[in-house]
Task: structure prediction
Amino acid sequence: MDQNLGLIWERCLKFMRDNLSASEHEDVKKLEHSFDLLFDRVQPMSLINHNLTLLVPSDFYKEYIEENYLSLLSAALKKNIGKGVKLWYSVMENKPHGLEKPATQNYKGISVQAPKVQEVLPTSVSKNLVNPFVVPGIKKVNIDANLNPNLSFDNFVEGESNKFAYTVAKTIAKRPGATSFNPLFIHGGVGVGKTHLAHAIGLDIKQNLPDKVVLYLSSEKFIQQFVSAAKAQNKTDFGNFYQMVDVLIIDDIQFLSGKAATQDMFFHIFDHLHQNGKQIILTSDKAPADIQDIQERIVSRFKWGLSAEVKSPDFDTRKKIIVDKLHRDGIVLKDDMVDFLAGEVKSNVRELIGVINSVIAHSMISKSDLSLDLLKETINKIAANQKKTINIPYIQEVVCEYFGIQREQLLSKTRKREIALPRQLAMYFAKEYTNATFTKIGEEMGGKDHSTVMYACETIRDVSKIDKELKKYLKEIKDKIFE
Ligand code: ADP
Ligand code: MG
Result:
């Protein structure tokens, strides 16, 4: 071993040892106990262009380090080697005569550019990693699972229309990767609860198995990341990143249609994860066989596990959703009113919830008790409203009026905060309340790139979690949109 490398590694070990107690790991004692045992048997093998390869006795070591020490190790590497270090493992197992053979079969076929001596999974702890989900902190390399806490199983109403998908989802959440339901392919029409179920699985896993790396994203985001990774010649990093994930949830996978290069990448990631017993969950507005322009090998993989259709809610499911939703808001409706509502709004759950929200709002404004007459009146108003509204221009109009700015300003390129924020809000609402894609919204927002829209939606969502002012904007504008 290079003496220099030996020294560097010693410093890394010292740093880690010194900072064990500061680790964010939930069981610091466990870290302290296992540290020497573990790292005594780990050797630094090479450090080439910021690629550090560790020689570990078996997969177990690699996994143990990844699960328990990654944050510390990442901080140590950053401090002692510098930013942008990538970590690779070479696994000794099954190789009595050195390293001439691939380390393990499991990893075969994926590590496109892995050093020749190994076929193991490199894990990047690089800050420059193309993937924005990696948020390297001082103490922890963190992957934001991207899950919406409101879309839990607790908030999901089970009914005939979703029973099968719901049951399978719950089963998978208990034993991700360990059932034959891999991948789980959830399909169905608009607004029936596919995204909700997908989040619910992720949330449940995070709650019961917090060490699992869960990642939710839309296929649009996946495509966008892949394209920028390809531009930056970072495809390998991109692929490697996804291979770290234990539970990969990709929403609206039908958008991969026609994207051949992204499909190739997806195919490799899929196979790697599948072979390693990682759980894959996909949603789509179509059954696997009905997605256009998608490689046959991918379609056939979609069918490997289980396809579960979520249907439009039937009358009884709609009733249950209404009662549940109102109950959460502390409102009780008489049976005949619930029946009336359930009879009126048939299309999908999203619309149903929209109507319920309006009913609640109206009943609060009018301050009168809800009667069947008032309900009918409300529904009529909503219906009239819905006919003319909630498209992108309408949202732009509401936002402009709210902030007292001109439409031209909203669509302009200026980055002044008093314009940029309304613009981001308009993009966010467009995504929330219309079916427009990021690309379409970008076009209608004065010819912005879809990635700008995506970024805006994310920013608004993230910042509104903590920012009171933004929360207020969201609420007030939403009320105006549905007024
Ligand atoms: P999809 O992804 O199928 O288009 P979503 O999962 O986004 O639909 O659902 C649309 C809205 O309806 C969301 O607000 C979701 O929380 C709600 N929703 C859907 N199905 C249910 C259900 N069974 N119980 C409660 N809420 C539901
Ligand atoms: Mg969806």
